[in-house]
Amino acid sequence: MDCVFCKIVAGELPARRVLEDPHVIAFADIHPQVPVHLLVIPRAHVTSLDGLDDELLAGKLLAAAARVAREAGLERGWRLIANNGDHGGQEVPHLHLHVVGGKRLGRMLPR
Ligand code: 5GP
Ligand code: ZN
Is 0.85 surpassed by the pTM of this model? Predict the structure, then answer.
C-alpha cells in the first residue's frame, strides 16, 4: 500500500521512534509545530477515526499517547489532536494522534 505511515511501520522510511508495541508505534513528527510533536499510530492501516471500529485498539492508542507525553516530560500539560478527513485537515490518510506540548498552547475553541 502506498501509505507513508505504513512505510514507517514497516521500517521502509526512517522515523525517530519513541514507542513500539505490538499494535501501536509513536514517532516524532517530521515538521514539528511545537517543541514536542509526536504522532501515535496503529500498526494496522486504519484511515481515520471514522474507520476505527476496534475499541481495544482505541484504548491502546490513547494509553500510548499519555505514555509518550509522560516520557517526553510534558508534566505541565499537553494536547491530543486527531484530524479526520478533508474538513478536519487530515493530510496523511493513516489514523494518527498528534501529541503536542512543550509550551503553553493557544485556545483551540472559543470560550
Ligand atoms: P495531519 O495533517 O494528517 O493530521 O498530519 C500529518 C502529520 O504527519 C504532519 O504533522 C506531518 O508533518 C507529518 N508527516 C508527514 N509525513 C511524514 C513523514 O514521512 N515522517 C514523519 N515523521 N512525519 C510525517
Ligand atoms: Zn497506512
Answer: yes
